[in-house]
Amino acid sequence: MPELTEGHWLTQAVETEPKRIVYSAEAIHSRVHEIAREITSYYPPDEDLLVLGLLKGSFIFLSDLVRAINRPLHVDFIVASSYGAGTTTSGNVKLLYDPMAPIAGRHVLLVEDIVDSGNTINRLAEALGNRDPASLELCALLHKHLATDLTLEPRWVGFDAPPEFLVGYGLDHAEDFRHLPFVASL
Ligand code: IMP
Ligand code: MG
């Protein structure tokens, strides 16, 4: 485990800094490859798969994941926003960018960084489900298991996460720390 006492991420002039590594880069790497193998064998090889990354938080997870999936697929993105600069959800999920790719009749795999309150997923499941995908599945790197009314349960979860605010490997706090190669708690 790298020490959190030095590194370029701590040279930023921010008040809140990561305190503890929760998932190392090595642990994430091997888990991502396990999930990719499961996804590869889950979908019929000759059917159309669209991997839809929820920006911005999933960008690193998605890029590692799709490179480890061994079958044809297309990639597009969707942008939603529920958090402002804080660490608690606002409950007001806005769809800021809609995928350009057609959804109807395709297997859609939504890739999310973390499921917290579930507001984002519930909103997206509704919006995407209305467009008649052949199937709609969710793959989340982290799942806090706090949501009580999820309308789309993740079929693949990287790690069952502690109920803490996590940063790194795509996850941010007020846009800081997305580039950390591991997941840490604040
Ligand atoms: P939900 O709508 O409450 O499930 O929140 C989903 C979104 O909030 C995620 O896609 C993240 O962008 C953000 N989020 C939730 N928990 C965390 C966290 O612990 N760290 C960083 N971002 C988080
Ligand atoms: Mg975020």
Quickly list its features.
3 helices, binds magnesium ion, binds inosinic acid, six-stranded mixed beta sheet, 186 residues, alpha/beta, 27% strand
Structural features, described:
There is one protein chain. The protein has 186 residues and is α/β, with parallel strands linked by helices. It contains three helices and nine strands. The strands form two sheets. It has a six-stranded mixed β-sheet with strand order 4-3-2-5-6-7, with helices on both faces. It has a three-stranded antiparallel β-sheet with strand order 1-9-8. Helix 1 packs across helix 2. The longest helix has 18 residues, at 25-42. The chain is globular and about 45 Å long. The two termini are 17 Å apart. Bound molecules: inosinic acid and magnesium ion. The site of magnesium ion has 3 residues, from loops.
